[in-house]
Specification:
Strand content: under 5%
Number of helices: 9
Distance between the termini: 38 Å
Structural class: mainly alpha
Order of helices and strands: HHHHHHHHH
Low-confidence stretches: 1-9
Mean pLDDT: 90
Helix content: 55-70%
Length: 165
């Protein structure tokens, strides 16, 4: 019989996991298509905003691999440690972020948690006040993409800190 920690996958023991599929090698066309969507989604968006969105989605999805990757990328791009620490509590630390960034973070949360009731009109309208249609579509594509990357990394047990891209 297994204990509840083992059953839930949260064992404190240092056990070696069986290797999982290497998505990029096993599904190269799908991986390449996602790389293309990712690149297209970023076009025209502020690079700092891109990282904030990817960090917040990765936090919500509990994707340690992507969270490590995007906080590292944000630091390399000049993002402050102070703001990186505040992303998880951006609503309570609103003064760290611009109104446009807060609108993007709210939309990121709603889209990432879409199963919890969809994207509320108020959240969408808030984002639409800060982003023109084309930019808003780019932002949505970015949110879709990071959610997909999170699911790939979690499903294939990518190891945080390895940044295998």
């Amino acid at each position: 019989m297994t204990n509840s920690a083992e059953h839930s996958g949260n064992s404190d023991e240092n056990t070696t996991k069986a290797p999982r599929v290497e998505f990029a090698k096993a599904a190269p066309k799908a991986f390449k298509a996602l790389i293309g969507l990712d690149a297209a989604a970023r076009e025209g968006l502020d690079p700092a905003l891109v990282e904030l969105v990817q960090i917040r989605s990765s936090q919500l999805n509990k994707c340690a691999y992507c969270l490590h990757m995007h906080t590292t990328d944000a630091r390399k791009a000049g993002e402050s440690e102070e703001r990186l620490h505040m992303v998880a509590v951006w609503e309570e630390a609103a003064h760290f972020f611009t109104a446009k960034e807060r609108a993007a973070l709210a939309l990121t949360e709603a889209v990432t948690r879409v199963a919890d009731g969809g994207v509320p009109d108020a959240v969408y309208e808030r984002a639409a006040r800060h982003f023109e249609d084309g930019e808003l579509a780019q932002l949505l594509a970015l949110i879709f993409t990071i959610n997909t990357w999170n699911r790939i990394a979690i499903s294939t047990a990518k190891v945080p800190g390895t940044d295998e891209r």
